[in-house]
Amino acid sequence: GAGVSQSPSNKVTEKGKDVELRCDPISGHTALYWYRQRLGQGLEFLIYFQGNSAPDKSGLPSDRFSAERTGESVSTLTIQRTQQEDSAVYLCASSIRAGARAGELFFGEGSRLTVL
Amino acid sequence: SQQGEEDPQALSIQEGENATMNCSYKTSINNLQWYRQNSGRGLVHLILIRSNEREKHSGRLRVTLDTSKKSSSLLITASRAADTASYFCATDERAQKLVFGQGTRLTINP
């Protein structure tokens, strides 16, 4: 597609369930980023991929969070045993490259997660 | 970690006035970017300024960068109701990832 696509756009789940959030970046973009945004707050960095590798996982809040990327394309963010504090909008972005020459990030519309 | 911090947190002005938002950061950077977010969903890139640049213009936007003070400002001239949004600065922390601030919520009153 022309832009970054995220699914689902909205997800309501019960505490303790696992959820998977998907991101389809712009074709040809080697860098992919996941951010979390709580209501009325800024963006919290979670993880980024260069190709299929994740050089920086420092933002993942706990071991309940994991992410993978395959084929230098689609990425999945998995949250296991969800907690109410996981409720937020999860934003994915891609760029042509990462690092010092990263340039502009292109964002998806986000996946809004609500944990009851 | 939050690298960039915007100031003010919220700004409300009349249509036609100019809006100025500031961003401060902590570490050395290669570039600084400004983004806009409507309705708490996706962000849209506005402008990028490199560390060796001091000022950049794009339409009604003017960005300045002072690396000695580790600060940047975004000026929106002749504001319009459609400019109502949250504005974020982002810096490339240690040339790896883009780190965003908490944002400035701008409201333009008709």
Kindly describe this structure.
The complex is a heterodimer of chains A (116) and B (110). By secondary structure, chain A is an all-beta fold. Chain A is built from no helices and eleven strands. In chain A, strands 2, 4, 5, 6, 9, 10 and 11 form a seven-stranded mixed sheet that branches. Chain A starts with a strand and ends with a strand. Chain B is mainly β. Chain B is built from no helices and eleven strands. Chain B is globular, with a radius of gyration of 13 Å. Chain A binds chain B through residues 4, 33, 35, 37, 39, 41-43, 45, 48, 55-56, 89, 91, 93, 98-110, and chain B through 1-2, 30-31, 33, 35, 40-45, 48, 88, 90, 92, 95-103.
Keywords:
heterodimer; A: 116 residues; mainly beta; seven-stranded mixed β-sheet; four-stranded antiparallel β-sheet; 0% helix; B: 110 residues; six-stranded mixed β-sheet; five-stranded antiparallel β-sheet
Describe the structure concisely for a colleague:
By secondary structure, chain A is an all-beta fold.
Oligomer: heterodimer
Radius of gyration of chain B: 13 Å
Strand content of chain B: over 45%
* Biggest interface: A-B, 28 and 25 residues
Helix content of chain A: under 10%
Largest pleated sheet of chain B = 6 strands, mixed
What is the tally of beta strands of chain A?
11
Spans of at least 5 consecutive residues with low confidence of chain B: none
Which word captures the global form of chain A? globular
Individual helix count of chain A: 0
What can be said about the biggest beta sheet of chain A? 7 strands, mixed
Report, as a whole number of angstroms, the end-to-end distance of chain A.
33 Å
The helix/strand class of chain A is mainly beta
